[in-house]
Amino acid sequence: MPASTILGSLKSLIVGRARSLTDRDLFHKVSLAALFAWVGLGADGLSSSCYGPEETFRTLGAHPHLAVFIALASIITITAICASYSQIIALFPSGGGGYLVASKLLSPAAGVVSGSALLIDYVLTITISVASGADALFSLLPPAWLAWKLPFALAGVAGLTVLNLRGVRESVMIWVPVFFVFIGTHAFAILYALFSHGPELGGVAAATVQEVRTVSGELGWIGLLAILLKAYSMGAGTYTGIEAVSNGLPILREPRVRTGRRTMLYMGVSLAVTVGGLLLAYLLYAVTPVAGKTLNAVLFEKMTAGWGATGTAFVFTTLAAEAALLFIAAQAGFLDGPRVLANMALDRWFPARFANLSDRFVTQNGILLMGGAGLLMMVITRGSVALLVVLYAINVFITFTLSQLGMVRHWWRERHTEPAWRRKLAVNGFGLALTSFILVSLTLVKFHEGGWATLLVTGLLTATAFAIKRHYRGVQHQLRRLDTLVESSAADTAQVGQSSSTLLKQDRTAILLVNGYNGLGLHTALQVPRMFGDSFRNFVFLQVGAVDAGNFKGMAEIEALRTHTAAEAERYAAWARRHGYGAATFTAVGHDVTEEVMTLATQAAAQFPNHVFFAGQLLFAQETRLTRWLHNHTAFMLQQRFFRASLPFVVLPLRVGEDLPRVEPQMAG
What we know:
Blueprint: H1 3-14, H2 26-29, H3 34-40, H4 42-47, H5 52-60, H6 67-91, H7 98-105, H8 108-138, H9 149-165, H10 168-173, H11 176-196, H12 201-234, H13 244-247, H14 256-284, H15 295-303, H16 309-346, H17 364-381, H18 385-391, H19 394-413, H20 421-490, E1 509-514, H21 519-532, E2 538-546, H22 555-578, E3 582-590, H23 593-607, E4 611-620, H24 625-630, H25 634-644, E5 649-656
InterPro entries: AA/rel_permease1 (IPR002293), APC_K+_Transporter (IPR053153)
Membrane topology: Multi-pass membrane protein
Pfam families: AA_permease_2
């Protein structure tokens, strides 16, 4: 069996069989209903209840009853952020993530800052979720097993990376039973704590009042506020993940706005109840930290102390569900991180290859990058949740704040046309005030504890994005000059073709690979008569419309791409006919441009047996690793495929970075 067949079979086994654009149920198969979106996207927020309340409670130290105020503040914060993001979902129905909101409502520069912050945050989401899941799982195991916790966490990141390469639904559906086990066990634990300790709630309130008096008497009101502020800030990881729904709208089932808002409601209610309920349960059971165990593990063990084997089973099931949910939470990083990266790549802040789709219609390059970055971060931090919590949350509040600022600006601009602008502005205005306050607090509290590292990495990523954009802008400027040059010179080109535009299939035919009607394509077409005189009587144009993250949103978008691709190719054919040549077009759409080109080339070669293929390729006067990374070399890759298919192929390089483009053809075949 050939090696390629073996590799293909192995890929199908691990990643899954390729999907087809002709499948009428394709978008149904790759999208999520609200309930399943709650699992895939909401798990990020809900899972933070496994470490957010704990970090808050630990930070309060000798003043545990102040947790009542943190619980109330957390519920208010979750409600405000969810309400404001519901408005973002309505305004950006095709995907209103922080990058797009800031880019469109503030400026592209603000958008790239927001997007870069989100990317770092999603890497940390993957890392902290898997690390926390390992902590929860190893809380159930003997201490001697702790040496295996880091290898287990690394294997977890690698496994999730492979799972997400299979597709959105596949990476979510496997976790649905575990997710609802978590919901059921934690809802039961919170209700049991409240009902079994109902008479003690009055005592908790009295103890809280007394603790406020004691702390304010010892440290003053400023000292009391400082304690509350630090505890609230350390638990800010609780609110990360709320933005995941607005970022992930393109993968939700139609109608997306309604599905997104329903998902947001599910997530907000479940998160607020779980966080507030756990903090109160810590107080009711007088939970204190125990080495090697999470606070939730201590709580559940105290709660079930007299239940015997049933209690042991409940604790094991609940903590195992926590560990699994934390792994599910990493899904947000794999689902939304590559999507943010793809959106930025489409705008040329990052290499265009990050917008490409695999044959499973996932952004494969982005998933691999997020998985690799998660593995690197896990190794650097040794899977320490305490350290990761310090690095976490600052970035997401940069995005929160920029998004809310953009929405406030939008409603103010629309005040003359939007009847409900005051209410909507008030919602986002309150969200802006809240997220700005948390951002400043987090930065002050966490900066010297390691938060500076997060800000530094985010700054470097932002600077890299601006450098990449500057490069692409320079290339685009030169290509626009070429467009003007070619358009003006096209009319003056010697008419070396036949006097009529009759298409005779037995005549010698130049088959050109083009990508949109532009200067590069026309420049390539003009070189054929200049180099070969009147030997070619026909011009045939092959064009493939690339299905990427920008247009893979529904069958309507795919059909629009198909129509646009055919129209662009026909413009070349019309140009050829005006110059007296016979002309024809072959077009297709697909995620793998190279494969589609080979299919079209085979068809064209069969119809026009006396043929030579031509393709233009950008070459830089000063070729560097950066230019090789930022630009594909499709023509040269195709050249190898054409060689193997015994098809004559000519690459016409177009030099970029010189005053005037020169053509130095490379003959093949």
